[in-house]
Design a protein that fits this description.
Distance between the termini: 6 Å
Strand content: under 5%
Length: about 250
């Protein structure tokens, strides 16, 4: 369902409920041989669609909460890294150690040792990747940045741990304090990864319920319309009732 805004799924389900209501109102005249479009089957499909849509919303809320929690844990990292470099510099470490630590800190701060500019011709287009869902791509790019920050912090800890003179009295600057923060960072990052997986899987289930070519709610709605047309005729008011209901896949 790439590029299909979330409201579209809700609208499809709402229209399906209208369709179901019409079919129930037709009474005994509505008696299809196709087991997929009996009243009972339609009611079951509608209930499943509602449940799967809610599951996506619940998973998205959990992902948002996990993302916010991670952001809170990672928020002080860059400022702390700069303080660590200052604390390391204050104990006169070896030149190699301080250079390595500063190099890592530049990466944590998102800076390069030398500025690199890449100029593209003004007439060079940058086409979008149509195969990537914008939401998934956004999550992926964000995840990479947190993975990198965590990796850089681990390397910084290892570097300063090799300096015997680095024994600051400040708890958050100590090796134990940094280790504790890294543990919290890893836990928060894992929380987002797991929440992202749950959200992605919930969307897969929802999309199968709504759009599977054989059993999806939208294809079934089309079959119902055709059956109503076969009963009452193309010019009937009954068919006009159901034909006006729109179901979209993108």
């Amino acid at each position: 369902m790439t590029k299909f805004i979330e409201v579209g799924h809700s609208k499809n389900i709402a229209n399906f409920e209208d369709l179901l209501s019409y079919c129930i109102a037709y009474g005994s005249v509505y008696n299809p041989a196709n087991s997929n479009i009996t009243i009972t089957a339609l009611q079951t499909k509608h209930s499943a669609a509602l449940a799967d849509l809610q599951a996506v919303k619940t998973a998205k809320t959990a992902l948002d909460n996990a993302t916010n929690a991670r952001e809170s844990v990672f928020a002080p990292c860059r400022a702390l890294a700069t303080r660590i470099i200052s604390a390391l510099s204050a104990v006169s470490p070896s030149k190699l150690t301080i250079e390595d630590a500063k190099t890592i800190n530049r990466k944590i701060q998102g800076k390069r040792s030398k500025s690199i500019k890449k100029v593209l011709p003004s007439d060079t287009p940058t086409p979008p990747d149509e195969s990537i869902d914008p939401a998934d791509n956004s999550i992926s790019v964000s995840q990479q940045s947190y993975d990198s920050l965590l990796d850089h912090f681990l390397k910084l800890k290892e570097t300063i741990s090799q300096e015997p003179l680095y024994v600051p009295n400040e708890t958050d600057l100590s090796i134990a304090g940094i280790t504790s923060l890294i543990t919290a960072m890893q836990s928060a990052n894992t929380g987002v990864i797991n929440a992202t997986t749950a959200y992605s899987n919930a969307r897969i289930v929802r999309d199968k319920t709504l759009y599977d070519a054989s059993t999806g709610l939208v294809p079934i709605a089309g079959e119902v319309k055709q059956y109503v047309k076969s009963i009452f005729g193309a010019a009937s008011r009954e068919y006009k009732q159901v034909s006006k209901l729109r179901f979209k896949t993108s």
